[in-house]
Design goal:
Length: 573
RNA sequence: GACCUCUUAGCUCAGUCGGUAGAGCAACGGCCUUUUAAGCCGUGGGUCCUGCGUUCGAGUCGCAGAGGGGUCACCA
């Protein structure tokens, strides 16, 4: 990056950086800085009677600054929040030399710079808890201006709100928008709480392959990659179900994994190509047991994050208090449409779906039709956490057939705020049935379903040896986090959501210009005027370019020797 | 992938009927020793997303493209 390409403010900051160095101050010191107090703790615990928090050190970013002659107030932001700092010239410069205040603090430091302050806490006349600085240390000079967000009485002015910028530069979002940090802290609280719950129950956290030779455990298009040494196609996992089941075969009673999964499908506010699921498998249990477990676990999570089971999500207050409502899928459909479809065959289902205004096509079998009706007519209306049980067998090739109802499997999903948050089964452990189900999937694939599951011989082999009756669960961590943090987009609960790359403008290097006889010192100026490649100069109007270049030279006081109009004309040929 | 919509200063945004761009904050120069979005006076800062077209003249109109957001489709 050359100097003249920088904005005015960036240039000034770089100049300040040099000035600081000239004063013998290292703007990026190597030595550790001992922080002994944090903004939030000071604000919560300072007691003016006791005069605690004396001789403390804090460190953070300068967020606002108000300078009044020999004294100044600054707001410092550390990892926990903001606190005001009072800096008076004669406190930080007790001797004759007032450079640290007059020059360094007043002139050379900017908003966004990171400093350390040592001093005593007191309360100002206006009642604000403030650190009175005795020492000030420059810890990091920032050479790019921060977006400026102002706040008064909890009201935000000029918020840094462009979603593109916020997601591409999440670090800025985190600095400037405090609620963002809160969301991500709560995300980690959520996984910690869940992990704690599972560990207390004695289940083992494990890790299984992300690169898989055969993708399985869900219906989705995968990301495909290639391993050179093995000369083999590998897929990024879409789920880890089949590996965790192998571990149950291997004799573990309960295993779980927080699993980054990858699905090569559309993106919207509920979908990101990589996302996180927690999958849990417990031997000798069934799906009724698993419903109790999910209720208990999610209730605990709500309590750990919010201290209550009630969570505000948009306009809705969602109460995770046990027990949750339970519907079979047929009951739910009857409840919301008034139609009992439990005895219907494929043709009648198709007609019913059409009557309800749902588009159908020939590739849709019985199970898919039922699923569509449910998805269209019921799901969005389920706001309070609700279990939907007993799904059609066609949609669930890894779930055990229902103990008493033909054509159904022992499966449930928990729906909350109109969206699925988890999916669980009594796992299919009959190896013969499992093989047949995979073969049905192959037929579906031939019928044109490009998300049908692949047949995994190695997994079938494992099941042949005998997997105990097992209940399994997959719970969407991003979705659950969205609900628990009142976020309406998945991008708000992922630090770095997937984005298209920013377009790079093609820029020629300086030697391409010098080859044409253009002096090197003019190259950055020419580029600043929009001619990023030598080729593009052919489109330039030489007279205008000549004027512009001399203008920049004069305006920027660069002291370069102006080229002649003829020189410039030659450059443009 | 389709449709709708947005893109102007470091940030948030105005910009009328087509006439070479404005505000607040931030920055810079002043005044000011406890301010509360501190204030007051002054100054600088722009590839109006990109390209092409219409026009004497385009931030503004048309077409194409890029990126973002929303809705739909697919999915969790």
């Amino acid at each position: 990056m050359s100097y003249t390409e920088l904005s005015e403010q960036e240039q000034l900051r770089r100049k300040s950086l040099e000035e600081i160095k000239k004063l013998g101050i290292n703007p990026y010191p190597a030595k550790k800085y001992d922080v002994t107090a944090y903004s939030k703790d000071i604000k919560e615990n300072y007691d003016d009677e006791k005069k605690n928090f004396q001789n403390i050190s804090i460190a953070g970013r300068i967020m606002t600054r108000r300078i009044m002659g020999k004294a100044a107030f600054a707001e410092l932001q550390d990892s926990k929040g903001k606190i005001q700092v009072y800096i008076s010239r004669d406190d930080i410069c007790p001797g004759e030399d007032k450079t640290l205040y007059n020059t360094v603090f007043k002139k050379l430091l900017d908003l966004g710079d990171i400093i350390g302050v040592k001093g005593n806490v007191f309360i100002t006349k206006t009642g604000e808890i403030t650190v009175k600085a005795k020492e000030l240390t420059v810890l990091t000079k920032s050479v790019r201006p921060l977006p400026v967000v102002k706040e008064k009485d909890g009201k935000i002015y000029d918020a840094f709100s462009d979603p593109e910028q916020r997601y591409r530069m999440r670090y800025l979002d985190l600095i400037v928008n405090p609620h963002v940090k809160e969301t991500f802290i709560n995300r980690t609280k959520l996984t910690n709480s869940m992990r704690e719950y599972l560990n207390t129950k004695g289940y083992l956290e494990v890790e299984t392959p992300i690169l898989q030779p055969i993708y399985g455990g869900a219906a989705a298009r995968p990301f495909k990659t290639h391993h050179n040494a093995l000369n083999q196609t590998l897929y990024l996992r879409i789920a880890n179900e089949l590996y965790l089941k192998r571990l149950i075969v291997g004799g573990f009673d309960g295993v779980y994994e927080f699993s980054k999964d990858f699905r090569n499908e559309g993106m919207d506010r509920f979908h990101n190509p990589e996302f996180t699921q927690m999958e849990l498998y417990v031997a000798y249990k069934d799906y009724f047991w698993m419903m109790d477990t999910v209720e208990e676990m999610v209730e605990k999570i709500a309590l750990d994050i919010h201290g209550t089971t009630k969570v505000q999500v948009g306009k809705n207050t969602i109460d995770f208090k046990r027990p949750w409502k339970r519907y079979t899928m047929f009951e739910a459909i009857e409840h919301f449409t008034g139609i009992d479809i439990s005895e219907m065959e494929e043709e009648e289902l198709r007609e019913t779906a059409e009557k309800l205004g749902i588009e159908t096509d020939k590739s849709m079998g019985k199970g898919k039709l039922i699923d569509e009706i449910f998805g269209e007519k019921c799901e969005a209306q389920l706001i309070q956490p609700t279990f939907i049980t007993d799904y059609p067998v066609e949609m669930s090739p890894l779930a055990k057939k229902h103990r008493s109802k033909d054509g159904l499997v022992e499966r449930f999903e928990a729906i909350c705020n109109g969206k699925e948050i988890c999916n669980a089964y009594s796992e299919l452990n009959d190896p013969i049935d499992q093989r047949e189900r995979f073969e049905e999937q192959l037929l579906l694939a031939q019928r044109g379903d490009d998300e049908a599951m692949m047949l995994d011989e190695d997994f079938l082999k494992a099941i042949d040896y005998g997997m105990p009756p097992t209940s399994g669960l997959g719970i969407g961590i991003d979705r659950l986090t969205m609900i628990m943090t009142n976020s309406d987009s998945i991008q708000d609960v992922l630090f770095f959501p997937q984005m298209r790359p920013e377009k790079k403008i093609q820029i020629d290097s300086a030697d391409k210009y010098t080859e044409k006889g253009i002096p090197e010192e003019w190259v950055t100026l020419i580029q600043k005027l929009g001619f990023k490649t030598v080729e593009s100069l052919k489109n330039a109007k030489p007279g205008k370019l000549f004027n512009d270049l001399c203008g920049l030279n004069k305006k920027g006081k660069l002291g370069l020797k102006n080229p002649s109009a003829d020189d410039v004309k030659k450059w443009c040929e």
